[in-house]
Design brief:
It is a single chain. By secondary structure, the chain is of the alpha+beta class.
Length: 109
Amino acid sequence: MTEYTIEYSPAARIDLKGIYSYIAFHLKERTTARNIINRIRKEIKDLDVSPDRYPSVEWEPWSSMGMRRFSVGNYEIFYLVNHDKTIVTVIRIFYGGRNIQNMIDTNKD
């Protein structure tokens, strides 16, 4: 079985820090923040053995890129798989209550 290396884009790292900061400092729930971040990281780590198990995004421009997504609690993780280099790159991590498609849709006027 092939193992994939997991990488985080700079934006995904910022997303994780933002999630932690919001929960830990704004909501004043540091233990909850730590638990959520650990859960997100664990689920992402599990992509190392079966990165194609989640569906592709259905909207452009991410559909053409082969972007995949899955949920961890209230958060949506978006990632790309490079089979040639056996790398999974986490692109973004968004709160699921937001209009994510609208946020990334570069074709909107």
